[in-house]
Amino acid sequence: MTRRRWLSVFFYTNLAVLLAVLGYKVYLYAAAPEASALLVEQIERVERATKGRDTLSFAVVGEANNSIGVFEKNIIPRVNASDADFLVSAGNLLSGGGEDKYRAILGTLSHLQKPYLLTFAEHELDEFGGSRFYRRFGPHFYSIDLDAVRLVFLDSTGRTPTDWQERWLRDILQAPTRQPVIVFTGHPLIDPVPETLFAPDRGAWSTGEGRLRLLGLLRDLGVDMVISAGAATYSDQTVDGIRHIVTGGAGGFVLNDDTSFYHYLQVAVRPEGLSVRMQHVDTAPTIWARRIEGLWFYVYSLFYVGIWNFLLIFSALVIVAVYLFNRLFRERQFYPNYEMPEPVDLGRPLRIAMFTNTYLPFIGGVPISVDRLKRGLEAQGHEVLLICPSYGADTPDPCVVRVPTLWRSGMMIRIANPWHPRIKRRLRAFSPDIVHLHHPYWLGTLGLRMARALKVPAVFTYHTRLEQFAHVVPLPGALFRNVVAHSIISRFANRCDQVIVPTPVTRDYIRLIGVQVPVSVQPTGVDTKRYRGHPPEMLAALRQTLNPDGRLLLVTVARLSAEKNIGFILRAMAALKERNAPPFRLIVLGDGDERANLEAMITKLGLTDDVNLLGDIPSDDVPAHLCISDVFVFASAAETQGMVVLEAMAAGLPAVAVNSSGIDAFVENRKTGYVTPDSLTIWTDALHGLLSDATHRKDMGAAAMTAAASYSVEVFSTEIAAIYGTQIAAFAARVRAPKATHQEPEKP
User: Fold this and answer.
1) Which range among 110-119, 159-168, 332-341, 429-438 shows the weakest confidence by mean pLDDT?
2) Is residue 542 a contact partner of residue 625, using CB atoms and an 8 Å limit?
3) Superfamily for 351-525+720-741?
4) How many CA atoms lie within 13 A of 566 on its CB side?
5) What letter would DSSP give residue 526?
6) CA-based Rg of the chain, rounded to a whole angstrom?
7) Whole-angstrom Cα distance, residue 59 to residue 82?
8) Fewer beta carbons within 10 Å, N or C terminal of the chain?
9) Element (DSSP H or E) covering residue 324
C-alpha cells in the first residue's frame, strides 16, 4: 500500500472515530438517565440497617478517583465481605465532574452490596459537575441522624456559601446530643502530617479567618471527629479536642511509600466511643513494583473514564494534521496531463464491465445512455457485462447481471444488493479489461472496489447533476446541494482513472469541484436512423389520434419528477392561451411520482384540453411521437447533457429549452432552437414567436436535424473504446513503474 493510501486510511479512520465519539457524546447527553437524588434511597437503607442499634461500623474512602484497580477491584470486595453497615466517601470519589465520570462511578458503585453516602468535594465539582452531583445524588451538604452517631456532610468547595452552612450547623447541632458527631469535608481543615509530595486541596475553609471560624464552631458544637479527603496520604491528629483524619488512599495517585499508600478506614461506633482502624490495601511486594503499579492504576483509571475524551481530542488533532499536510505539502497537478499513452491494441475485442444503479426497463437518461453505449460497443465486437438492479419483469440477456434489490421506491430508485455473491462470481469469470462506472455510489462504489481488486482501470461517466436531487435526500437541502453532492462526486471521481462527461460545461464543473484525474468530453450518441423512414400513413394515424383538430403539436420527454420542472412548462402553456397564441396541444412522454400534482395543476390552469400526459410509452414508439410534433419544449435544469433534446433535433424539431448545463452544447440559439434564461416570460416569448412563424420553425427544424447527425452511436462508442484503450495502457504503465509515473489521485 502506498504512503498516500496509508495516509488516506489513517485520515478516514480517525474521521470515523471522531464521528463515532461525537455520536456517543450526543447519546450520552441525550440518553443519560435523569436520576433523582440517589442519596435519599441510600440514607433510607442506612437508617433501616442501623435502626435501634447503639453500635455500628462503616468504611470510609477518600480520593477514589474512579479507580478500577484499587477501589472497584480491591476495596469494594473487602467492604462487601466485612461487617461494615455502609460506606462513606470523604470526597473525590470521581476523577472529574464530567458526564462520563459520573456514569462510570455509577457502574462502579453497582458492585457495592452496602449502602453508601457521599461527600461533595473538588473533583465532584470540576467540569461543571455540581449540577450532575445534585441531580444524581442529592444536596451538596446534608446530615443523617442515626441512633448511634450523627453524620454531617459539608460542602467545602465554595459552591455553597460558608455562612449559610455555618448557620445550618448551629441549627442542627446546638442542642446537646447523646451520639458522637462526625463531620466530613472534601478538603482538610488541618494540614496532614507528615507533609505530602503534592500540596493538599484547598477549599473554602482551608485557610485564614474562615478556617479559624469553622474550627471554633465545631469545637463549640461538640463535634468529635472530622474526616477529610484532598490529599494522597493518611493523617490522624487531634486539635482542640477534635480528631482530624485525612484519608486519601482509595485510588488516587499515591507514591506507595510510608506516607502515601493505598488504604481505607474502618470506623466503629460503640457506646464507649469512636474507634478508627486504618486498613492497608496490599499490592505489589516491593516498593518499586508498588510504585509502578500505582502509576499504572492511576493512568488506567484516567483512561477508563476518559478514553472517549482522549479519542475525541486525539482524532481531531490527527485530522487537522493530515488535512494541513495534504493542503500544504502534497504536490498537485493543476493542469491536465497531456502525456497520455497511445491506446493499447490487445489484438482481441475488449471486455468491459459496466456498473449502473438504473437500467431498462426504467426509462431515463442514464439507462438509455448506458444501453446505447452497450449496444454500440457490442456492434464493434467488444464484450460487455452489465451489472444493474433487477426490475422484476426483466428481458433476459446473458450479458446483463440483474441484482436483487434490497429496497425500492417506484421505478426510479432501486437499491440493489451489493453483497450478492453472483456479482463477484460473474465478474471474476468475465475477467474484464476495464470497469466502467455510471454512478458515484452504491453499485458504482462496488464496481470501483472490484476494479481495484482485479487490478484493472476504472472509468466513471458523470451523467447526473446530483445536487438537483436534494428533494429526495433526507438531509437539509442546502447542505446536500452545496456540500454533500459535490463532495460525493469529486471524491469518487478522483479515485477513478478517467472521467467522461457529455459537455464542455460539465467538464468545467468537474474541474471546479476539485477533480484532478483526466476528463474527456464525449456526448452520448443518437441512433439517427430511428427518426427517419417512418411510414407516412402510420405517422398520420398517430397524429390524428393525439391531435385530431390539427393544432400545433408541442412535445416534451421527461420523467414526471420535481427536478424536470414540468410545472414551468404548464405555466407557460397557460400564459400562451392568455396571449391568444396559435392553437396548440402539448403531449408529455414520461411518468413519475409528480403525476398527481401535475394533473391537479393542469385542471387548475384550465389546460385539460390542451395538455395530455401520455405516461411511459415503449422506447421504440418515442421517435414516431417526436416525428409528428412541431416543437420540442424542455425546462429541466438537472441535465448534464439533455439527451432527449438531441433526440428531438434528430427528429427535425426545433427546441425551446431553459439554459442549463448540457443544453447549450447542442442547441445553437436562434439557429436550431432557443436557449433562454430560467424566466417564464422570456421562455414563453421565444415559444410564442416560434409558433407564430411557420417558415422559421421549419428552417430551425432542418438545421437541428443536420446538427444531430454528427452525434451518432457509432462515433460515440468508437470514442469511448479509444478512451478504454488509453486507460488500459496508462494503467499498465503505472503498474510497471508506480513510483516513477503514478501519483495516486485520491486524497483525504
Assistant:
1) 332-341
2) yes
3) Glycogen Phosphorylase B; (3.40.50.2000)
4) 28
5) B
6) 40
7) 9
8) N
9) helix 287-328
> Could you read off the pLDDT of 108-123 as tens digits, one per residue?
899 999 999 999 999 9
Asked if the peptide bond before residue 361 counts as cis, ω within 30 degrees of 0, the response is yes
For residue 620, count CB atoms less than 10 angstroms from its CB and return exposed for 0-12, middle for 13-18, buried for 19 or more. exposed
Under the banding of pLDDT at 50, 70 and 90, the label for residue 742 is very low
User: CB–CB of 224/206 below 8 Å?
Assistant: no
Q: What percent of the chain has pLDDT over 70?
A: 83
Phi then psi dihedrals of residue 56, to 5 deg: -165, 170
pLDDT tens digits along 724-736: 999 999 888 877 6
Whole-number Å distance between alpha carbons of 638 and 696: 29
Task: Compute the distance between CA of residue 500 and CA of residue 358 in angstroms, rounded to an integer.
Answer: 18
CA distance linking residue 586 with residue 668, whole number of Å:
23
**Ramachandran assignment for 106, one of left (phi > 0), alpha (psi -120 to 50 degrees), beta (any other):** alpha
For residues 223-243, average pLDDT: 95
pLDDT tens digit sequence for 520-530? 988 888 888 88
Chain centroid to CA 494 = 21
Strand ranges, E, within 110-262: 116-118, 142-145, 150-153, 181-185, 225-228, 234-239, 242-247
* Measured distance CA(523)–CA(117) in Å, rounded: 77
CA terminus-to-terminus distance, the chain: 15
| CATH 3.40.190.10 matches 531-711 | no
C-alpha cell at 639: 441535465
Residues 553 and 585 sit within 8 Å (Cβ to Cβ): yes
Crossing angle of helices 287-328 and 99-109, rounded to 10°:
140
CB 481 within 8 A of CB 508: no
Amino acid of residue 659: N
The more confident residue out of 192 and 509 is 192
The 10 Å CB-count burial string (b at 16+, else e) for 72-82 is bebbbeebeee
- Of residues 712 and 697, the one with the higher pLDDT is 697
What pLDDT, on a 0 to 100 scale, did the predictor assign at position 582?
95
β-strand 142-145 against 150-153: which pairing, if any?
A: antiparallel
Upstream peptide bond of 194 is cis (omega within 30 degrees of 0): yes
How many other C-beta atoms can be found within 10 angstroms of the C-beta atom of residue 231?
A: 28
CATH number for the 32-282 domain, one of 3.90.1720.10, 1.10.150.50, 3.40.50.10490, 3.60.21.10?
Answer: 3.60.21.10
Give the mean model confidence (pLDDT) for residues 155-183. 93
Q: How far is CA 507 from CA 355, 356, 461, 469, 483, in A?
A: 22, 21, 11, 20, 19
Q: What are phi and psi of 599, to 5 degrees?
A: -65, -40
Q: Is the model more confident about 364 or about 597?
A: 597
User: How would residue 288 be classed by pLDDT, with cut points 50, 70 and 90?
Assistant: low
Q: Where, residue-wise, is CATH 3.40.50.2000 in the chain?
A: 351-525+720-741, 531-711
Q: Is residue 24 classed exposed, middle or buried when 0-12, 13-18 and 19+ CB atoms within 10 A define those classes?
A: middle
More confident residue, 560 or 100: 560
> What is the value of pTM for the model shown?
0.53
Where along the chain do the CATH 3.60.21.10 domains lie?
32-282
Give the span between the Cα atoms of 713 and 377, in whole angstroms: 9
* Among 423, 426, 450, CA closest to 436: 450
Q: What is the DSSP string of 553-609?
A: EEEEE--SSGGG-HHHHHHHHHHHHHTTPSPEEEEEEB--TTHHHHHHHHHHTT-TT
Report the candidate in 374, 369, 372, 368 with the shortest Cα–Cα distance to residue 354.
Answer: 374
The set of residues, in sequence order, having a beta carbon less than 8 Å from that of 638 and lying 6+ positions away, is: 464, 465, 468, 469, 563, 564, 660
pLDDT above 90 coverage of the chain, percent: 54
Cell 488509453, residue located? 726
